[in-house]
Amino acid sequence: MTALDDLAPVPFHDADAPQRARMLSRLADTELAVALVAEPQGDQVELRIFPLETGSVALACDTEDRLAGFFGGPVAYAAMPGRVLAGLLKSENAGLLVNPGLPSEMLLDAAMLDWLTGALSAAPQATDARLRLTAPAPAVIEALAQPLAERLGDMRGLIAGAALAGTGDGHVVLVAGADPAHQPAIAKALAEALAFLPEQPGGVDVSFTDAALPPQVLRFDLSQPEAPAAPPRPKGPPILR
Question: What b-and-e string marks burial along 103-137, b requiring 16 or more CB atoms within 10 Å of the CB?
């Protein structure tokens, strides 16, 4: 099972809109092995395009073994993040078939890839953390808490903590303990994640603060998971005297 499979308890095309958006968000950051016509020549690649009734598509898998398994043997391929591949296919006006025959199979037409590249161009809206912070709305928690927790979990080691709060007119994701040099990239990653989620009344901004937060905000646990305890060592044979 891969990260994409874990997000596909039901097939992509049978999932509801929020679940499909979460899979597309993960796809953007997943390194894909995409089939080529021939081995890459320097930094030049020619994608292998397959004609389907719904339009032309490239074919990619989230591991090279899966790609080779689909073709029944070795195949020329290039490895690149889904966001890069989506940009290449947009210029080709082609779609993308991902992980055919597997739990996370996705058939994305050119229009869907165009939407994906648009979502990936989302720019963060910074806000002032000195706003009067309130408890987040229950509907916003239901829509955003789980996918935000997954995205923030990818940032362990880069941030010390995070929370979701209301601001009266909208909501804000508050990030603590981030190196100023990393803040633009963190804000961009969160803005992308929010672009894949249902739009919330008043919008959701991003802010960085190390100030104490009121107790009513929703905090995300970013502590490192504890390593499982080592099993007890078996006793050795009895000592003969």
Answer: bbbbbbbbeebeebeebbeeebeebebebebeebb
